[in-house]
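Hi R.,

Here's the input for the magnesium ion complex you asked about:
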Amino acid sequence: MKLGTNHIAIDLGTAYIRIVDSNKGITIEEPSILTYSLTSNEKIAFGDESKKMIGRTPTHLVVSQPIRGGIITNYDDTTTLLTHLLRKMNKKQKIITKNNVIVSVASQLTLVEKRAIMEVLLQVGAKKVFPVESSIAAGLGVDLPVWDPRGFMIVDIGAGKTEAAVLSLGGVVISETCRVGGIIIDDIIQAHMRIHHNLVIGSPTAEKIKLNINDIRQTEQDVTQDVKGIDLQSGLPKVITIYEKELLIPIIECIMKIVEVIRNVLESTPPELSADIMDTGIVLTGGGALLTGLDEMISERINVPVFLTENPLH
Ligand code: ADP
Ligand code: MG
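And here is the predicted structure with magnesium ion in place:
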């Protein structure tokens, strides 16, 4: 699809909302988060500003993450957040009233879930909304000839979910998702710290630990990280040193769920398309795919070449 003038494309991710102006490229990329007051219901902060508040709010403030695994879980908060980001994108209010909006949607969403996404965009002023399957959007984003009679496999590891899809002739032939992604791995790190070290940490700290991990395939090196949190017993702040190695077991358990989804999709793929995928390899995208060593780990398990896209976050 060629983006003409006056088109806007929106990706409502679990971690990030990205807004593309057909003339300017990505103009907004902010966390899908907003903070509001429980007492007055007033919205206090959005996107980047709001992310800084996670785990730091007084009791009357609440941080909301209204999109989970490509599904809008809080309609009003998503509308408010999008309105704010669109106004930020162009100071002239109601900027998108004259625009057609292209939105990426996961293949596995139900009609009701897709409808909710379309409704949100109409609510914030879109003239017309054109849904595009997110795997097709990703394929186009990495310049794959998705319209060809040839099979490609895209695996998008986002924050709240992973979707593996086989594309051919501009459509999704088969796809499957699982609830594994960047935020889920952060949750696992948080749980590990609580259970094995009696240390309570917030999700931003868990994400930082994950981003610091050298390589998920390391087995021998004694690489450590210092972690700040609250001691579960004393309730006091504490710094402990952990071995990265101890986090690898639960993380790899998670990754095996991704491997299983890829295997299931491959097993249901018609033979001609399978042969194409063996030639081209599997294309990995999404921020979750940036864990060092993940591409090779998947490739080793399923015996198919795996390529990480140049810019998985975009
Ligand atoms: P979504 O589309 O679901 O919003 P993204 O594709 O934008 O998600 O990916 C965001 C996720 O990628 C976050 O959970 C973030 O922690 C993770 N991420 C970003 N960079 C890295 C990295 N270098 N290593 C591991 N994970 C990363
Ligand atoms: Mg995404």
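One thing worth noting: The mean pLDDT is 93.

Cheers,
M.
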